[in-house]
């Protein structure tokens, strides 16, 4: 089955073509970072309008890369949630309209399921079951994954997601949007040991997270020690150390609690190199297999949506007539395939 994937949950327009037999054939992504940078964050109305402008040209681009026409497509998958409602509707309405016009099945895909299964786009994917650390701007979760649609959330954030904490701390340090990537780059110039940030909720049992306190600690540190370049870099490094160690401790606990020997790290924060190195060292010591998507599939993309959509369409799932999107959609309420 040849599936067209459409991702429009936030500020990336992602299009991909996935074949059940040949794998990923083509994909393209347009990022709206420049559109939203002047506002310091995503403006939902602007995101929706930009998706509408870019969707058709990107579909044509992906089809051109694959040397296919729209009539070769046998199924369409689009992001149904969670995300910004206007952005979701842009992709969902186009996907449903194309499916109706072409007489082919369509399926709405859970955005986080796409991230969880993005490593299956790689040559050596994990096998079920595995533990997943899902870390992005909107989510921080530890998930026990037993199969397609069989997800148990065993750890969640009580307040801010880790990506949001990175971005907001970056903003405190006067960095541009998106702040998380800029903070990680600034941390490369930091001197270790000057500042020590707390590791939230590691001194108590359980697998839940909390990152709002780290933002407050960063704010107080900036106010007390100033904003010269070296101080900013030292604060960035100390903040990153705290986040990385916290995530590593929680992953270690979750592996011990579940007995699983495979760890998948997915979502935009999974691109952080300090985190990748720390988790790789931890997994090597514990003889745990570690899986990351390639960097271009850590952030939002159409390839992960096309892959999940293909699996669910092959399992016989279809959308009913009409268009529904879910700005909030718990991952553990998905149907198993």
Automatic annotation (TrEMBL):
A GO cellular component entry from the record: cytoplasm
A Pfam family assignment: TsaD
Chain residues that bind substrate: 134-138, 167, 180, 272
Reaction equations catalysed: L-threonylcarbamoyladenylate + adenosine(37) in tRNA = N(6)-L-threonylcarbamoyladenosine(37) in tRNA + AMP + H(+)
Principal subcellular localization: cytoplasm
Positions annotated to bind Fe cation: 111, 115, 300
InterPro entries: ATPase_NBD (IPR043129), Gcp-like_dom (IPR000905), KAE1/TsaD (IPR017861), Peptidase_M22_CS (IPR017860), TsaD (IPR022450)
Record's cofactor remark: Binds 1 Fe(2+) ion per subunit.
Record-annotated Gcp-like domain positions: 24-307
Domain of life: Bacteria
Gene3D superfamilies named among the record's database cross-references: 3.30.420.40
GO molecular function: iron ion binding; tRNA N(6)-L-threonylcarbamoyladenine synthase activity
Keywords, comma-separated and alphabetical: Acyltransferase, Cytoplasm, Iron, Metal-binding, Transferase, tRNA processing
CDD domains reported for this sequence: ASKHA_NBD_TsaD_bac (cd24133)
Subcellular compartments: Cytoplasm
Cofactor(s) of this protein: Fe(2+)
EC nos: 2.3.1.234
GO biological process, one term: tRNA threonylcarbamoyladenosine modification
Family matches, as NCBIfam families: gcp_kae1, T6A_TsaD_YgjD
Family from the record: Belongs to the KAE1 / TsaD family.
Function (record text): Required for the formation of a threonylcarbamoyl group on adenosine at position 37 (t(6)A37) in tRNAs that read codons beginning with adenine. Is involved in the transfer of the threonylcarbamoyl moiety of threonylcarbamoyl-AMP (TC-AMP) to the N6 group of A37, together with TsaE and TsaB. TsaD likely plays a direct catalytic role in this reaction.
The protein's name: tRNA N6-adenosine threonylcarbamoyltransferase
Organism: Aquicella lusitana
């Amino acid at each position: 089955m040849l599936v067209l994937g459409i991702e429009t949950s936030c500020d990336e327009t992602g299009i991909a073509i996935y074949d059940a037999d040949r794998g990923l054939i083509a994909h393209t992504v347009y990022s709206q970072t420049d559109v939203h940078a002047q506002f310091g964050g995503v403006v939902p109305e602007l995101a929706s309008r930009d998706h509408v402008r870019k969707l058709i040209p990107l579909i044509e681009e992906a089809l051109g890369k694959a040397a296919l026409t729209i009539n070769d497509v046998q199924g369409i998958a689009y992001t149904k949630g969670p995300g910004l409602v206007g952005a979701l509707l842009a992709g969902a309405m186009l996907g449903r309209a194309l499916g109706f016009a072409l007489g082919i099945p369509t399926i709405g895909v859970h955005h986080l399921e796409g991230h969880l299964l993005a490593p299956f786009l790689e040559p050596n994917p994990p096998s079920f079951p595995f533990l997943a650390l899902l870390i992005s701007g909107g989510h921080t979760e530890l998930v026990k994954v037993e199969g397609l649609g069989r997800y148990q959330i065993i750890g969640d954030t009580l307040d801010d997601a880790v990506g949001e904490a990175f971005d907001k701390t970056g903003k405190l340090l006067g960095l541009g949007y998106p702040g998380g990537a800029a903070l990680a780059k600034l941390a490369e110039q930091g001197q270790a040991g000057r500042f020590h940030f707390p590791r939230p909720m590691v001194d108590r049992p359980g697998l839940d997270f909390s990152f709002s306190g780290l933002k407050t600690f960063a704010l107080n540190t900036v106010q007390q020690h100033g904003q010269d370049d070296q101080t900013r870099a030292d604060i960035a490094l100390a903040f990153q150390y705290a986040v990385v160690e916290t995530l590593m401790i929680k992953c270690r606990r979750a592996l011990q609690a579940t007995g699983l020997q495979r760890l998948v790290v997915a979502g935009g924060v999974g691109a952080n190199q300090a985190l990748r190195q720390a988790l790789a060292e931890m997994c090597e010591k514990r003889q745990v297999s570690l899986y990351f998507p390639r960097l271009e599939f850590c952030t939002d993309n159409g390839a992960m949506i096309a892959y999940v959509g293909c699996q669910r369409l092959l399992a016989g799932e279809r959308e009913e007539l009409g268009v529904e999107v879910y700005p909030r959609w718990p991952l553990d309420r998905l149907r198993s395939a």
